[in-house]
Amino acid sequence: MTPYAVRIVIAGAVFAIVASPVTAQPRGTLRGTITDSVTGAPVVDARVAIWCAGCYGRYPTDSAGHYRLDRLPAGRATFEAHCPSATGLGAEITQQEVEVGAGGETILDLRVRRGHCAEPAYSERPGVFRGYWTPGFESSAFVPCADSALGVPAPLLPGKRLFRPKAWAEVAPDAMRRISWPRDAPVSSDGNATYFVTWRGVLKGPGTYGHMGVSEFSMVVDSVISVHPGGPSDCRTR
Asked: What is the pTM of this model?
């Protein structure tokens, strides 16, 4: 049965009810296989997602490296896939525009270069770290300078991550009381200030840390050495 929408037409003082057909939005399927580019072995538990109106969620590949996304709105959409990860925040395999065909299947197979999905082993490293810290209940993110003792973004975490490389900062209450907060720190649209900090503590990870587990590393701060308003050139000049 064809669905109909009811439209009320006003003609003088007479109300007429006119039925007009509603056209269902065409839909399609996107499926494929993710494999190792050298061995051909399936990449199991890679996370795939497609971004479009009416699309939601991330889904793992199965034991054969297959994924299948059904009942997608036909048309262009953004598809992405991330590596399997113990933390669920693995490196990006691809992000690209796809065309979902109406009433059929679109096939997108992916080959992952060898070593792309490698992750560092868990470790705990004490030291002095410097970088940008944005405090807040949902955003206690510490992003290190390239020359910081943190040293994790480039050598240990290849590829674009589901979330940018960062550590969830947990500052000891006594250290927090001793901080003299700059009043001219830049503030984001959600009201959180960003500071350039140098502090001593222990880096832990990878794992899942912070609000809803969005950080792969935890920065446990014992003492704060200095705090300044965060600026784009701080890592190069301080």
From this structure: 0.62
